[in-house]
Amino acid sequence: MIIPAILSQKYENYRTIVDLAAKSAKTTLQNYCDKTGYAFASRIKTIESLAEKIESGRYKSWSELDDLFACTIIVPTLSHEEDVSKFCKSVFKVINTTKRGQVKKSPDVFRFDSTRIRAKLLKPEGLEIAEQPNIYDVIFEIQIKTAFEHAWSVSTHDLVYKGPDVDWKRQRLAAQVKATVEQLDTLILAFNDTLPHISESPWPEIKAKQKISIRMKKFCEKAYIPSECLPKDLSRFCDNLYILLQSVNFEEKVGLALDAIETEIAKKSNIELFPRSISLLQYFLAILIKRNIIALPTSGRYYCHISEELLQIYPELNIVASRFDYEVPVSE
Predict the structure, then answer these.
(1) What does the alpha-carbon distance between residue 84 and residue 76 come to, in Å, rounded to a whole number?
(2) What distance in Å separates the CA atoms of residue 140 and residue 135, rounded to the nearest whole number?
(3) Which candidate, 94, 255, 259, 270, has a CA 20 to 30 Å from the CA of 37?
C-alpha cells in the first residue's frame, strides 16, 4: 500500500506521544481489569489502517482521529458496563461517550453497537507542559464489550472486512451471528428471571450436591462454623465434598455423611474450639473417618490434602497413602 509522505511523517512524529499515552492508559486500565477480573485488549493503529480510515472521507482533520490507540474492556454481562464507564470517568478526561443503542439502528439490523468512550489522559492540576502536542492531547478510544460480543468481533472481523472480496453472504452471516450474540447477552442479563421457565430433569449428582448446599447453609445459619472458616466459594466446596464421598463410593449416602458432620460440629458449644489451622474440607474428612462413616481413602485416583496441621490434630490420617504431593521434582 502506498502511504503519502505527509501521512508517514505525521504518523512518525506523533507515534512517540501515542506510545507514551497508550502505556499510561494501559497501565491504569489493566490494573482495573486485574482487580475486577475483566479481560483487556489493546492495540496501536498501524499506518496502513490509519490511511484507510482517512480515505473513508469521514474525518475532517487529524484532531478528529480518536483511535490511534484503542482498547477493549471485556465484561461478563451488560450489567457490568456502567461500572466500567464510571471508572473511566474517574481516571480519564472523557470527551464523549457513545452508549450502546444510542446510534439509530433499524430493528432488523444487527451490527457492531458496543459502548465507546473517547478520552484523554487526565493532566495533573497545575502541570504546565511546553511541548505541543503532548500525551495529554492524545485522544484514545475505550470500547466496552461483553464476552459474547468480543468473540463475535474477533471471529468475524477478518472474515468479513479483511478479505479480497465484497460478499453479501459473508455480511449476512456475520449479522446473523451478531443477532445470536444479542440474544445470548439478553438471556444472561435475564438469567435468574428465565430459570422458572426451564424444565428440570432428574439427575442424582445434582440432587446430592443440593443436599450438601442446603445443609451447609443450615450450618451457617446456626453458626456451627466460624465465618473465617467458611469456604470462599460454597458451590465449589459442595463439588469437592461430593467428589470426596464419590471417591469412597459413598455418594448415595450423602445424607448420612452430613448427619454425622452436623452431630460433630453441633457439639462444639464454644465456637472457639473449632479447628482453625485446617480447611473445612479437611475437618469434614477427619470427622467422617473418625466416626467410621467412610473408609480411610488409602489409594485410588483421589488425592487427599493432608497437611502437617491436619496430622497434628488427627494423627491417624498419617496412613493415607493417596495424598497431594507438595514436592517439586528436580530436573537432572
Answers:
(1) 12
(2) 11
(3) 94
Q: In terms of pTM, does the model score above 0.85?
A: no
Reported as a single tens digit per residue, the pLDDT across 2-23 is: 888 999 998 898 899 999 999 9
Which contiguous run of DSSP H or E holds residue 44? Answer: strand 39-44
The total of other beta-carbon atoms located within 10 Å of residue 296's CB is 16
User: DSSP states of 117-151 as a string?
Assistant: EEEEE-PPTT----SSS-GGG--EEEEEEEHHHHH
CA distance 83 to 188: 17
Angle between helices 234-247 and 280-290 (to 10 degrees): 30
- Residue span(s) of the chain under CATH 3.30.460.10 come to 5-123+132-189
Alpha helices in 140-279 (DSSP H): 147-161, 168-189, 191-194, 204-221, 234-247, 254-266
Asked if the 5-123+132-189 domain carries CATH number 3.30.460.10, the reply is yes
Cell of residue 269, nine digits:
458449644
